[in-house]
Specification:
502 residues; mainly alpha; 2 domains; five-stranded mixed beta sheet; disordered N terminus
């Protein structure tokens, strides 16, 4: 299958026919000419509803990213504490910080909508690579649906979507870059590649190869290539150098991670990758790759080889000492789901050609068997995600009570004036966001902090609220900080919580 755009050129009608053939102008004609805008709006609206219905809140890292945005606006950016530096999220955190506490909701909507958009691009890739003619378009549609749904079936994928992490977003960006190239938009493909490279260093070798190809094939892109490639080291290493004088702070924080693989790191990384998807999806992707070799379909072969190469790069990172956690392998798993979708399309389209005399519908039972084999696993994933969602809702209640506690105590400025906020590590980034300080300034080892001499304010998470108590308070502040000893818990008159002095 040629790597060219499938779009047909628009031919302008001549003379008086132009006005008659142009058709009516308005919302209907705009949707007809730009249907993907409608899809984008639908994804955004659905994401907003999903956020509202699930009632979840960000994980540890996103709160730290939001703190970056606040600190940047106040010229106090400090990357010394967790999370690890990532320019991709910084690009959103800074402008969103202009909107104050609404930055949280802007990031949540951006993250969820972008992550769910990956289903659209996985489907578009599978649809395009199936190569069905108009009479057999059903095969391409089936391929697209399978690929989009299979993407959401990646292990823990929805957990990271609903905890508004950046990893599913980067899967979408990578798939969008592939789709743009297949659609004949290499500039957009390169720009999306640069954006992905600001989130994961695994993208760098692939972007480098694409830049070499584009530099030779499209001379007019060279200025864009120079600027794009220059931005990557500037943001990855330049910003940490300016703020902390540690250009490789991201790599340093990634070393000695508690999630680092122990034992054989090559086998361990491969096992983490294969655990992301179910065996039928992997076999379908393998079938597509083998079939592509037979069909001499370079695009599918390159995509399959690229997914393998990403795993090899991750193995090299793991051998270097970086953690190689499963979510770093979401991107090749996303490509795998797209290839599995292609296999579905080709089974419906080309199965009768494998052996002469087979009926045209022979691919249908094969596809049905593939889908049915995934049902038990899909149900298990749904039950797991439902259980996780209930846990996250309880966590959301605790987070909301923490914000209410700080307000009831007189605001975060009053707490900070009385001592260093200290809490369990689970809530460190959240506390940093609410108290407007770097995560490294929040104590995360309560027992250690209690043995020190400097003033602290200890926040202890309870089953239904928070306990607050200052320690080592400076003599001049003891009277002003006396109100910080208490419990924020629900009562009969205040079921949502109230500060009870103790």
């Amino acid at each position: 299958m040629p790597d060219t755009t499938l779009e047909t050129p628009h031919i302008r009608p001549s003379g008086g026919q132009a006005g008659r053939s142009a058709g009516p102008r308005g919302a209907g004609s705009f949707v007809a000419r730009h249907p993907w805008w409608l899809v984008a709006i639908g994804v955004i609206v659905f994401s907003a509803v999903l956020i509202r219905v699930t009632g979840t809140r960000p994980g540890y890292d996103p709160y730290g990213w939001l703190v970056w945005g606040y600190q940047t606006l106040h010229l106090s950016l400090d990357l010394g504490g967790a999370p690890s530096w990532k320019p991709f999220t910084f690009l959103f955190a800074v402008p969103y910080a202009l909107f104050g506490h609404y930055a949280l909701w802007l990031w949540m909507l951006t993250s969820v909508a972008t992550s769910l958009g990956g289903c659209v691009f996985a489907g578009r890739i599978a649809y395009r690579l199936t190569g069905a003619d108009p009479e057999h378009r059903y095969a391409a549609i089936a391929a697209a649906i399978f690929a989009g749904v299979a993407l959401l079936g990646i292990q823990d994928y929805m957990h990271y979507v609903l905890s508004v992490q950046s990893d599913p977003m980067l899967v979408t960006v990578c798939l969008a870059a592939i789709d743009c190239h297949l659609s004949g938009h290499p500039r957009w493909a390169f720009l999306l590649g640069v954006l992905a490279a600001l989130g994961r260093p695994e993208v760098w070798p692939f972007l480098g190869l694409y830049a070499i190809w584009a530099w030779r094939a499209i001379p007019s892109m060279r200025w864009l290539i120079y600027v794009g490639l220059a931005l990557i080291p500037l943001l990855w290493f330049g910003v940490p150098t300016i703020t902390n004088h540690r250009p490789n702070i991201a790599g340093q924080l990634a070393l000695a991670s508690p999630r680092e693989l122990h034992g054989n790191k090559v086998i361990g990384t491969i096992n983490r990758f294969t655990a992301l998807t179910y065996l039928p999806v992997q076999l379908a992707a393998l079938l597509a790759f083998v079939w592509a070799v037979i069909r001499r379909d370079r695009t599918v072969i390159i995509l399959g080889a690229g997914a393998i190469a990403w795993v090899v790069v991750e193995i090299a990172f793991a051998l270097h000492g970086w953690p190689g956690v499963p979510r770093y392998l979401f991107e090749p798993a996303g490509v795998m789901t797209a290839l599995a979708g292609v296999a579905v399309g080709w089974l419906l389209l080309d199965a009768p050609r494998i052996r002469h005399g087979l009926p045209a519908w022979v691919g249908v039972p094969a596809v049905l068997l593939l889908v049915l084999s995934l049902v038990p696993g899909a149900l298990a994933r749904v039950r797991k995600e439902h259980k996780d969602m209930l846990h996250e809702r309880g966590r959301t209640v605790q987070i909301d009570k923490l914000a209410a506690t700080l307000n009831a105590l007189g605001g975060y400025q009053h707490v900070r004036a009385c001592g260093r906020p200290v809490t369990n590590v689970e809530y460190v980034a959240i506390m940093a966001w609410y108290t407007k300080v770097n995560t490294g300034k929040i104590g995360h080892r309560p027992q250690f902090e209690l043995q020190q001499s400097y003033p602290i304010v200890l926040f202890t998470a309870l089953r239904n609220g928070w306990a607050i108590k200052p320690f080592h308070t400076a003599p001049a502040m003891q009277s002003a900080c006396a109100n910080l000893t208490g419990l924020y818990v629900p009562t009969a008159r205040h079921p949502h919580g109230v500060l009870v002095p103790k």
